[in-house]
Amino acid sequence: MRKLYVLSTLTAGVLLTACAAKPPIVAQNKTVVVNDQTIIFGGIYDKEKKSCNLLRMAMPLCRANFHQ
Fold this sequence. Notes:
- The protein is about 30% helix and about 45% strand.
- It has one helix at about 1-20; strands spanning about 25, 30-35, 35-45, 50-55, 60-65.
- Strand 3 and strand 4 form a beta hairpin.
């Protein structure tokens, strides 16, 4: 009986920990045409890490960290 209690407590703890992580905020993609070339810009902001990634054609273009 005690093993079942410990196992269920550990399982509940793992599930709650896994659900606690929040996904980053993803910006809507912006399509720009320059000289007949199509470029897609996007971005990701992670509140927990306080970082912002700017993307060009789904590849990292610029990264910034915000710490106080």
